[in-house]
Amino acid sequence: MADARPWLEIADLPYTSDPTSLFERLQQRPGAVLLDSGRPSAPGGRFDILSSDPLAMLTIEDGHPRCEPSIPLPAAPFAAQQALLEHAETELLPRLSNTVAARASALPFLGGLLGYWGYSLVKPHDATDDAAHRDARRPEPGLPEARLGLYDWALVQDHHARRTFIVATAARRQQVMAWLDEPATPTRPDFTLTSPFMADLDRAGYAQRFQRVMDYLHAGDCYQINLAQRFTAHFQGSTWQAYQRLRQATPTPYGAYLAWEDQAILSLSPERFIGIADGRVETRPIKGTRPRGSTPEDDQRLAAELRQSAKDRAENVMIVDLLRNDLGRACRPGSVTVPQLCGLESYANVHHLVSIVHGELAVGAKPLDLLASAFPGGSITGAPKHRAMQIIDELEPSQRSVYCGSLGYLDRRGRLDTSIAIRTVIADGDTLHIWGGGGLVADSDEEAEYQETLAKIARLMQALAG
């Protein structure tokens, strides 16, 4: 029987350096998603990906995948994602000709999965799960552990080539162009906080948990443990407007806005988790932070202090070793290399030490195999990873939800790019949650680490406060 699916096409649209002007007309549509490279002001960004109206939505709750509309899928979360993508390639997505594939060789997305993988998607062995511990936690965001839409079209902005493309069938392109021609009329009032951000831990509570981490480190349970605290506020109005405030305050190469009914994710992450293109793998772990200075001289001093910090470099190297091991599980033996170790990158609010780890996907391995084997990212857990995750589960009073999970896409050709969901705000009903954390080692200073958790998110909270 002949394949009746329409062909995928690629057409040019007028280029704009700001994706928000296009997304403004899409953001109220079902499953609207913006993966935002923060250009032209964010270092390292190139592509923006915008879409909406997915063909299907896969959610994972309590480890159980569920797809709407219903498609038979395996019970394991990552196997379900792979099965959905393979089913879509033959049954749901438009046909992809060799001519279009060749023309789009530089484009990151020609249809596939867009969404998030929450931190709790992979649970540590023997994680705390008793009723008393759960009851002691604060109310949690009601987002599922993962939510991934199957999208058959996208607007892709290439800021290096200064071009905007629409990747869609002829019929879908006509539909999208009609959406873009509609005036952008706000359907919600202006965003405003109705209460200040309040920490889930008071100062003494953080100090107590810091000491417990030190006890574990000195006992030899771990070499490094990431400890985070959550801040919560109430709001009213448009979460899209809130994202635009955050983007203006701290543009980053891995920004994202995703919204569903009364829930949304607003992420301004500077950190790539895993990127895969044509079998080549890259991860860019961040370890080591200093705030930006109030004067150019102070800023240079803080940057130099970070570059020269033996402690911060040691933390970074420790996580690089962890990620080399994680990548090695699904990469060709001998292909994992470190072309950059502890490079300095500066953002609007902080300086970071960033390393780069490369690899080549092993023959027969799929991108989701690598994502599953490395998830969640070692830079936001500690080392050894599973023991660090157990301790995090024991000590943090709030579930991490999407925070420290990952946002991104998996393209039908096997291309993948994901961020570490730090500098990330979750909107659930009328409540906002944001986390700040940092990696602790045996010689960490408690006051300095506490202040670092605040420095990482202070600019975001200030932007939301208006």
Task: Spell out the key features of this protein.
31% strand; Anthranilate synthase; 466 residues; 13-stranded antiparallel β-sheet; single chain; alpha+beta; eleven-stranded antiparallel β-sheet; globular
Gist?
The protein has about 475 residues and is an alpha+beta fold.
Write the layout of secondary structure elements.
Blueprint: E1 9-13, H1 20-23, E2 33-36, E3 47-51, E4 56-61, E5 64-68, H2 77-91, H3 98-103, E6 112-117, H4 131-136, E7 146-151, E8 154-158, E9 163-168, H5 170-181, E10 192-193, E11 198-199, H6 203-218, E12 224-236, H7 239-249, E13 254-260, E14 263-269, E15 272-277, E16 280-283, E17 286-291, H8 296-308, H9 310-328, E18 337-346, E19 350-360, H10 367-374, E20 382-383, H11 385-395, E21 406-411, E22 416-420, E23 424-428, E24 431-440, H12 446-465
Helix pairs in contact: 7-12
Could you explain the architecture of this structure?
The protein is of the alpha+beta class and 466 residues long. It has a single domain, classed as 4-Layer Sandwich (Anthranilate synthase), CATH 3.60.120. The chain is built from twelve helices and 24 strands. It has helices at residues 20-23, 77-91, 98-103, 131-136, 170-181, 203-218, 239-249, 296-308, 310-328, 367-374, 385-395, 446-465, and strands at 9-13, 33-36, 47-51, 56-61, 64-68, 112-117, 146-151, 154-158, 163-168, 192-193, 198-199, 224-236, 254-260, 263-269, 272-277, 280-283, 286-291, 337-346, 350-360, 382-383, 406-411, 416-420, 424-428, 431-440. Strands 1, 2, 3, 8, 9, 10, 11, 12, 13, 14, 20, 23 and 24 form a 13-stranded antiparallel β-sheet that branches. A hairpin with a 2-residue loop joins strand 13 (254-260) and strand 14. Helix 7 crosses helix 12 (446-465). The mean pLDDT is 93.
